[in-house]
Amino acid sequence: xxKFLICVFLVLITVMAFGQERIAVFPIEDLDNILSRNxxxxxxxQFSNEFTNRNAGRFTVVPRQDVERLINTEMAFQLGExxxxxxxxxxxxxxxxxxxxxxxxxxxGSRISISISLYTYPELVQLPGGVDLRVTNKDELFDKIxxxxxxxxxIIVASMPPAPAYRIGDRGPGGGVIFxxxxxxxxxCSMDLGNFTYDEAARAANNHRGGSFNNWRIxxxxxxxxxYTNLRLNGLGGLxxxxxxxxxxxxxxxxxxxxxxxxxxxxxxxxxxxNVRAVRSFTQ
Length: 284
Known about the structure:
With about 280 residues, the chain is α+β, with helices and mostly antiparallel strands. It has seven helices and 14 strands. Strands 1, 2, 3, 4, 5 and 6 form a six-stranded mixed sheet that branches. Strands 7-8-14 form a three-stranded antiparallel sheet, with helices on one face. A hairpin with a 6-residue loop joins strand 10 and strand 11 (about 250-255). Helix 1 (about 35-55) packs across helix 5 (about 145-160).
C-alpha cells in the first residue's frame, strides 16, 4: 500500500517573463509513516500557509485548493510517477512550465529528517541546491516550519535573476501596464477586460490570470486615480471611457470618467455597465 504523502513540493515557473516566480506547495513522501493522516494534512496546510504569507507580493503562490484538487484527482505523487501518461494532462494543466522542489521525510537513528531538492518538470532532472533539516520529535517538526520555509525561500531568491527596474508605462510581468513604481513596490493594470455591470466586473477582475498570476482584482478609488494621473494624462495605457472602482458600498456603484477625471455613481440595482481593468501589486 502506498505510504501517505505529506508537505512540501514547491513548484517554480522560471520561464515567466521578468523572472517573477510562480510557486505551488505540494506533498513529499513520508518514508517511515512518522505522522498520522490528520497530522500530515495539518502539517501540509500549515506549511503552505506559512509559505504563502511570507512571500505575498514576491511570488505568486498557486492556491492550495488547486493543489489539493490535483492530489485528490491523481491520488499518488511519488516523484517517479510525475511523467505517467495517465497523469500528464491534469498535471500539465497545473504544473505547465515549472520546476519542482520535492523530497522525503524519514528517520535517521532517533531523529526525524526532511530532505528537499530541486527538479525540472517534466524531465525530473535534479538541480543544484537543497535543504536538509533534522529534528528530535514531531512537536519540533511543526515548530521548525518557519525555519524550513525561510531556508527554502533563501534558495529560491538566490536562484532568481536580478529583478528589472520598472518605470511608469512599462509592461509588467503580468502583461499589464505599470502605473505605480516606488521603493521597490510596483502596481500594474491589465488592458480592458470588457464592459460589465459592477458585479460582473469584479468577477472578471478576480478571474483575470495575466502572466498566470492569481492576485488580480478590481481597483480601489485611489488606485484608479493613480491610473488616470500616471497613465491617462500622459497618453499611456490606451484608456478611455468610464471605469469601475471598488468603494465598498453595497447599494451604490462608482466609476471614474477617464475623459475628464470626474467621478460618478449610481444605484447598484439599476445594473449600469462600465469598463473594467484589473490591478495587482508586486515587489522586486
